[in-house]
Amino acid sequence: MRLFSSDTLRGRRLVLHDLIFGGDSPQGRLFDAVLIAVIIASVGAVMLESVEAIGTRFKRGLIRLEWSFTIIFTLEYLLRLSCVGRPSQYVRSFYGFVDLLAVIPTYLSVLLPGAQALLVIRLLRILRVFRVLKLVLYLKEANYLLEALKASRRKITIFIVTVLTLVTVLGSLIYLIEGADNGFDSIPRSVYWAIVTLTTVGYGDISPQTPLGQALAAVVMIIGYGIIAVPTGIVTAELARVWEGDSKPVKKMCRHCYHAQHSKKARFCSRCGSQL
Amino acid sequence: MRLFSSDTLRGRRLVLHDLIFGGDSPQGRLFDAVLIAVIIASVGAVMLESVEAIGTRFKRGLIRLEWSFTIIFTLEYLLRLSCVGRPSQYVRSFYGFVDLLAVIPTYLSVLLPGAQALLVIRLLRILRVFRVLKLVLYLKEANYLLEALKASRRKITIFIVTVLTLVTVLGSLIYLIEGADNGFDSIPRSVYWAIVTLTTVGYGDISPQTPLGQALAAVVMIIGYGIIAVPTGIVTAELARVWEGDSKPVKKMCRHCYHAQHSKKARFCSRCGSQL
Amino acid sequence: MRLFSSDTLRGRRLVLHDLIFGGDSPQGRLFDAVLIAVIIASVGAVMLESVEAIGTRFKRGLIRLEWSFTIIFTLEYLLRLSCVGRPSQYVRSFYGFVDLLAVIPTYLSVLLPGAQALLVIRLLRILRVFRVLKLVLYLKEANYLLEALKASRRKITIFIVTVLTLVTVLGSLIYLIEGADNGFDSIPRSVYWAIVTLTTVGYGDISPQTPLGQALAAVVMIIGYGIIAVPTGIVTAELARVWEGDSKPVKKMCRHCYHAQHSKKARFCSRCGSQL
Amino acid sequence: MRLFSSDTLRGRRLVLHDLIFGGDSPQGRLFDAVLIAVIIASVGAVMLESVEAIGTRFKRGLIRLEWSFTIIFTLEYLLRLSCVGRPSQYVRSFYGFVDLLAVIPTYLSVLLPGAQALLVIRLLRILRVFRVLKLVLYLKEANYLLEALKASRRKITIFIVTVLTLVTVLGSLIYLIEGADNGFDSIPRSVYWAIVTLTTVGYGDISPQTPLGQALAAVVMIIGYGIIAVPTGIVTAELARVWEGDSKPVKKMCRHCYHAQHSKKARFCSRCGSQL
Fold first, then answer.
1. How far is CA A9 from CA A12, A17, A85, B45, in A?
2. At C146, is the secondary structure helix, strand, or coil?
3. Distant-in-sequence, close-in-space partners of B47: CB < 8 Å, separation ≥ 6
C-alpha cells in the first residue's frame, strides 16, 4: 500500500517534472510561455513603480501586484524543488540561483525598505525564454556564438588588457595637460574620460579645452575608431572558423611519429606512412 | 463589336500595365523616373512646410502643392487599380498599401488638422526606385543581403534579447547607485541611459556623477564597444557563406580520373569528360 | 642648327618630365618629398592664420608666406604644363585640376577678401604622397581596397538609400511625438537628429524629453547599433573575395550547353561532357 | 679557490636569472605574480593620490607608499641588471626601458614637484603580465593579432592618410559655413570638430547651428558611419588569411590513389599510405 502510494507520488512528480522542466510537451510549452509572461509583467511592475508619478499614485495596487508575483514565484520555486530529482543540484544551478534571487528582495523589503529595486534581477529569469523556444536550431545558433566567443577569449583578453593600459596612460596624460580647471580633477576621472572617448561614446560632460588637450583627444578618438576593428575581426574570423567546423582538419595524431595534422578521414600518416 | 471593344480595352490595359508596372520598356522607365521625382518633390514639400520660417511664409503655395501631389498620386493609384489583373491582390500587396497610405493623410487633414505630417510616409514610396533600376544585378545584390540577414535572424534575435536583458539590469543598477538627484529618476529612464551608453551614442543629457556610477558606466561602455563585434561578425560570416553558396565545390569525385573538384550539379568530369 | 636646339629642348623637357612626373629616380623622389613638405607647410600656414591669437599677431609674416607658397605652386604648375606631352590632358586630369585649385584662392583674395580660407583645398595635393611612395605594393593595396569598394558599390547604394529612407521616417515620427517645445522644431531638424542618433554620434544638442520620444530614440539607437554590421559585412566579404581573386572559379562557358560554372582548368563541360 | 667562488656566483646568478626572467618554474611564476600585484598596487596609489579628497587626507601615507614602491622597483631593477648576461642589452630593451622609467619620476619629484604624475607610466609594466602567463598559446594568439595588423599596415596607412585629408577639408568647409559665432572659431578647432564627428564620438561641445552646417554634419556622420567598415574589413580579412595560413591544404595529389587533399609538407598519402 505504501509502495503504491509512493509510486503514485513518484508518478505525479514525473508529470510535474515534465510540465515544469521539459518544455517539449504542449503543456510544458504552455507552462513556460505563461511563466515568461508573468516574469515580464513583474519586471514591468517594478519599473513602473520607480516612475514617481505612477509610483505614488498607484502605490497600493503595485505593492499588491508585487506580493502576488512574489508568491507565484515562491510557489513555482517550491514546486521545482519538490519535483526535481536532486534538489541540492537545482539550488546550486544557475537557474536555481536566479529563481531564488527573484523572490528574496520582496521578503527582504519587509526588513529593509528599498530592497524592492533589486527585483529587476527578475529579468534574468527571462533567459528561460531560450528554453521555451526549445528549438534545437536556436540552441545550436547560440552554441555557435558561444563557441566563437570562447575560442576568441584569449585574444579578447589581450585586447582588453591592452585597452585598459592604453586608457590609463592616455587618461593620465590628459590629466597632466588639462588639469583640474578644465574638469579633469583626478586621474580616475581622466581615465573615465579616456574610456568615454576611446569607446566613441562621447558624453561631453568633460571635454578638453586646451589645443594640446584637443589634439590628444583627436588621437584617442582615431585610435578608438580604428581598434574597434580588432574585436570585430576576431569574432568574425572565429565565427567563420566555427562554421567551417567539420571541414577543418581534426588533429588526429600518428602513433609512430606523433605528427598531428591529419584530417578526420585520413587512414595513413602523411609523414611516416604508417597506419593511423 | 462588343468583343472588339473589350479587346481594345484589354489592349489598352495591357499597354498601361506595361507602362506602369513593367519598367523594362523605355516608356516604363520614363514613367518610373518621373514618379520617383514627384515622390521626392512631394516629400521635400512636406519637410519644408514644417520649417516655421518657410511654412508660414509660403503657406498657400505649399497647401496647393500638397493637394496637387495628392491628386496626382490618387490618379496614379486609380490607374494602377484599373489596369492590374486582380485589383484586390494589388491593394493587399506591400506597394499597394504604401501607395494608399501616401494619399490618405491629405484627405484626413480636412477632418483632422495636423495629419499632414504623416505625409512623410510618402518616402516609403521611394522604395520603388529599386524597381526603376530594374537591373537584375541590383535585385540579386539586395537578395544576397536579405538572404544573409534572414539566415542570421536567429542569432540576431538571441543577440537582441541578450542586449535588452543586459540593458535592463545595468539600468537598474545605475538607478540604485546614482539615484534621482543625478538625473536617474526612474528605472525606465535609467534603462534609456543604459541604451544610450551601450550603443555608444552618448548624448550626455544624463550622465553619472558619482565615482561608482562612472565606474559602472565605464564597464557599460567597454561592453558596448566590444559586443558590437557580435552582430558584425554574424552578418559578415553569413554574407561570406551566401556568396560561397553555389560556387563552393562539393567533393564529388570522378571514378575514372579521380578528379575531385566538381560542383554538386556536375554530371560530367571536367578533366576527362566521363560521366560522374 | 634649329633642329639641334629643338632636340636639346626636347631633351631638357624629358629630364624635367622625369624629375617632376616620374618619381622613380632619386632626383624625382627628392622633388616629390620636397613638394609634399611644402604642401603640408602651406596648409599649416593657412590653419594657423585662422587661429585669431596667431592670425592677428603674425599677420604680415603669414601673408608673405602665403604668397611665397602660391608663387612656388604657380611655378610648379607652369613647369608641369611646359614639360608634359599634352598640356590639355594634364589640365583636365584630377591632379592638374587640384594643382590649379591650389593657387587660385590667393589670386582671388586680391579681389575677394576671405577667399584664402579656400586654400585648405591645398591639402588635396597631399594625395600626391601616394605617388611619392611609388611602391608598387602600396598601389596594389590601394587597388585592393578600391576594387572591394567598387565591387560593393551596389550593395552600399542599397544600404544608403535604406538608411536615408529610415532616417526621414524616424525623424518625422519624433517630430510628431516631441514637437517644437523640446527642440524638434521642424522635420529637417528632426531628420538631422535621427542621423545624429542612428550613426551613434549623439551630440546631445537635441535630445528627446518625453518617455515616448525616448523609447523611439532607444529603438533608433539599437537599429543604428545593429545595422552598422551591414556595410562592415559587405566590405569585409568583398575584401576576402578580392583576395581570393584567382582561386575563384572563372566563368568558363561551355559552347554546347552554355553551362558557365567551370573552373579555369576545366577541360570538359561538367553538364554535357563536351570539350571546352 | 677564486674560480670556485666565481662558480658559486655564476650559479647564484643563474638561479636569480631563472627566478626573475624565466617564468616557467613555480618560483619564477610566483615572483612574476607578486611583481604584477605590486605594479597594480603602485599604479592604484598614484591614481588615488590624484583624487583631491583622498590625496590631502592620506598625504603622508601615500608618499610613504610611493617611496616604498620606488625602492622595491629600484632593487628589482638592480637585481635584473646584476643577473642578466649582458646588462647593456637589457637596459636598451623595451622592458628595461620601461623598468627604468617606472622609478625615475619619484626621484625626479624631489627636484621637480609634480613629476609623480608620470608614475602612471608604471602601468606599462603590466605588459609583463603576458610573460607571467607564459602560455605558448597566449603568445601565439598575440602573434596572430600582430601578424594580421602588420600585414594590413599599408592599407591602414592609406586609410589614415585618407581620413586625415578628409577631416581637414571637411573641417575647413564647416569653418567657412558656420564661422566663429557658432563656436567654430579657427580651422584647427573645426578640424577637431570634424574628427569628433567622423569618429562618431560626438561630444556636443561644438555643434553646427545653421541648416547648411547641419547638412554637412549629417554628411560627415554618414561617411564616418560607413568608412568604419574599411579598417574592420581589412583586419578581419587579414586575420582570416593568417589563420588559413599553414592549415590550408595545398592540392598535392597521390599518384597511386589520386587522393588530393594533402598538406604541403605531407610525404605519404593519407588514404593509401604510398609515398608522395
1. 5, 12, 13, 74
2. helix
3. B120, C168, C186, C187, C188, C191
Segment D241-245 shows an average pLDDT of: 69
Alpha carbons A155 and A149: distance in angstroms, whole number: 10
- How many other C-beta atoms lie within 10 A of the C-beta of residue A228? 27
CA of B139 vs chain D CAs: smallest distance (Å): 22
Q: Which chains touch C (3 or more CB pairs under 8 A)?
A: A, B, D
For A156-166, b/e burial (b = at least 16 CB within 10 A) is bbbbeebbbbb
Nearest residue on chain A to B235, alpha-carbon basis? A236
Interchain proximity D200–B200, CB inside 8 Å: yes
Higher-pLDDT residue of A96, D190: D190
Q: For residue range D4-42, what is the model confidence (pLDDT) as tens digits?
A: 455 666 677 777 777 776 656 777 777 777 887 888 888
Q: What is the DSSP letter of A9?
A: H
The minimum CA-CA distance between A167 and chain D, rounded to whole Å, is: 10
- ipTM of this predicted structure: 0.76
Residue type, C27: Q
Locate D236 and state its grid cell: 578581419
Q: Count CA atoms closer than 13 A to C171's CA, side-chain side.
A: 28
State phi, psi for B275 to the nearest 5 degrees: -70, 140
Encode pLDDT of A223-241 as tens digits: 998 888 888 888 888 887 7
Cell 559586443 found at: B227
Q: Judge whether B107 is closer than 8 Å to chain D, CB to CB.
A: no
- Provide the H-helix boundaries in B84-152: 87-92, 94-101, 104-111, 129-133, 136-151
Name residue D43's amino acid.
V
The count of C-alpha atoms lying within 13 angstroms of the C-alpha of A105, restricted to the half-sphere facing its C-beta, is 19
Q: Which of the 8 DSSP states describes residue D250? A: P
pLDDT tens by residue, B65-108: 888 988 998 998 888 888 877 888 888 887 788 788 888 888 88
**pTM value?**
0.79
Indicate if the pLDDT at residue B34 is higher than 70.
yes
Going A141 to A143 to A144 to A145, the CA torsion angle's sign is positive
How far lies D104's CA from each of B113, D109, D112, D211, in Å? 74, 9, 12, 54
DSSP β-bridge partners for residue C275:
C268
- Count other Cβ atoms within 10 Å, centred on residue B148: 25
Q: Cell 627604468: give the residue.
A: D100
For the residues of A27-43, what is the DSSP string, one character each? HHHHHHHHHHHHHHHHH
DSSP secondary structure letters along D147-164: HHHHHTHHHHHHHHHHHH
